[in-house]
Amino acid sequence: MVSGRYGVRAQGRAWVWASAAAVSLCLALVGGLLLLLLSQAAPHFWPRVVYAVEALEPQDTEQPLWGQLWRSEGEGDDARWLMKIGRREAGPDFVYLQPPSMQELSRPSQVAVWERREWGDLLGRLLAVYRDGERMAQGPRAWPWMLEMVRSAERQQTVIQSLKERRIPRLAASADPNERAEFLAAEAELRRLQADLHEDQLLIELADGSTTLLPAAEVVRAYRPNVMSLWDKTGWMLASVWRFLSEPPREANTEGGVFPAIVGTVLLVFSMTIFVAPLGVLAAIYLHEYARNVWWVRLLRVTVHNLAGVPSIVYGVFGLGFFVYGLGGWLDQHFFAQSLPNPTFGTGGLLWASLTMALLTLPVVIVATEEGLARISPALRQASFALGATQAETLWKVVLPMVRPAMLTGLILAIARAAGEVAPLMLLGVVKLTPELPLDSALPFIHPERKFMHLGFHLYDVGFQSPNVEAARPLVYAVAFLLVLIVIALNLFAVRLRHQLRERYRHLEETPG
Question: Which of 91-95, 179-183, 268-272, 503-507 has the highest mean pLDDT?
Fold first, then answer.
């Protein structure tokens, strides 16, 4: 064993091991965080078994219930189950029960979970299906009919949405008199489709023996978890994940998907990157390559470093005052006066939020780029000048290509911070729900004046503003896991690009100074 002046500590190996242990601990913590989020989010998509319970203690009622076990707490006499019984319109859709005995539990095979467009889930047994008041099928034959009715209603609602949001507004805004008849026909078609939506109805038996009529148009999906195989449940979970990623939210964000929030988050990050990258790089080039080492340049550099530590809400207040009320109000007065008093740019939107986030992350890009410029060997610049290149040519063709990895490092840090910030966005245009995305098929395709949704704000809203806490709990983990995945994906893309650029110019970095 090596000891004394040649020991492990003297050779620095102890610090190597300590550093490796710290990195391993960090990776383990990140992995543990992802596993925690994934384990808590997965039950949101997995179809749970429906139990039939005969006693309802401690509610002191003998009415039976059908419910899904959501969570178990405590042990012994203090043990209790949290069960989701649905029917939010009749009261709380979650109840606590003392754990029933096995004799009190059963799994009725024909009980289905009906995911509704309003009032959450409904647990019941399908008895019959009706079309325009006429019974079409009952018993086991009613299930295939029900599935076809739900699919037909979904297709009708897609057509209705297209008529209401695109075709009818376009025809109404047209000045062509020949399109008047087409406009009236579209309105008549819309009224007919809306009336047809209520023709198909489902007769459903509830746990207490009562029945209810549910319009097929109110059903999003239906499934019978007690008769589903493992493969059926896996397929159902994958379909649920896809719907979560591709659909808009419903019912105060406690149901449905997060597609508008994904679009808003990605658009914000990309537009912020477009603003901050050239501005930060140009500022760093001036400070390092052209500015003299005078007192005000040193003061400016210290100020840039300190701006990285300013609370983000301060940037939000600045963006609200300068961009929204100041610059946005000026634009409305001079270019959008016909829309006043309804502001176009004098209110929060994607543009002002992107500019504010660019200011928030600007110090990170400047510092990273300037450090990259400082690492360039002076011999490379001198060799370029010796070959007759000007300072601009040296900067553009020699220095900047070698600084790209440092620039991308700054952008990686900026993207990570911009994707996770919420406080300034709450003042600058992010909303709980929005009827239209800032990105669509209408010219100019990207609408910077529109408000938008953001995954970070969506997470805050679902976690702290939701009226149905138990239903929203798994959704909070799912949104958090998705947000972390998006940040990791954006960072991995930038890290991969930085690695390729670093390998391309590694031979120049190894040139002796």
Answer: 268-272
Cα–Cα dist 461/252, whole Å: 9
Alpha helices in 163-311 (DSSP H): 168-173, 180-196, 230-246, 259-285, 295-307
Which tokens is 10 given?
């003297």
- Residue whose C-alpha is closest to residue 123's, from 157, 95, 162: 95
Residues 6+ apart with CB under 8 A from 264: 350, 430, 437, 438, 452, 453, 454, 455
Q: Which two three-digit tokens encode residue 450? A: 């529109």
Q: Are the CB atoms for 382 and 299 separated by under 8 Å? A: no
Q: Residue 126: beta bridge partners? A: 204
Report CA-CA distances (Å) from 406 to 153, 456, 510.
54, 28, 16
Q: Answer for the pair 381, 399: CB distance below 8 angstroms, yes or no.
A: yes
For residue 110, report the phi and psi dihedrals to the nearest 5 degrees. -95, 0
Task: Give residue 28's pLDDT band: very low, low, confident or very high (50, 70, 90).
Answer: very high
**Overall size of the chain counted in residues:** 513
Structure tokens belonging to residue 352 = 């002002």
pLDDT score of 2 more than 60: no
Pairing of strands 249-250, 219-223: unpaired
> Is the Cα dihedral 393, 374, 312, 491 positive or negative?
positive
Cα angle, residue 378 at apex, residues 375 and 383 outer, rounded to 5°? 135
Q: Which residues have a Cβ under 8 Å from the Cβ of 46 and sit 6 or more positions away?
A: 233, 237
Long-range Cβ contacts of 206-209 (<8 Å, 24+ apart)? 206/66, 206/87, 206/123, 206/124, 207/52, 207/63, 207/64, 207/65, 207/66, 207/85, 207/123, 207/124, 208/63, 208/64, 208/65
What's the chain's average pLDDT?
Answer: 82
Report the chain's C-alpha Rg in angstroms. Answer: 30
pTM of the model: 0.81
Could you give the CA distance from residue 115 to residue 131 in angstroms, rounded to a whole number?
20
DSSP 299-319: HHHHHHHHHTTS-HHHHHHHH
Question: In the numeric block, which tokens belong to residue 338?
Answer: 């016909």
Distance, CA of 379 to CA of 401 (rounded, Å):
16
Q: Could you read off the pLDDT of 144-181 as tens digits, one per residue?
A: 988 988 888 888 888 888 887 777 777 777 767 777 77
Instruction: Return the amino acid letter for 13.
Output: R
Under 8 Å between Cβ of 479 and 459: yes
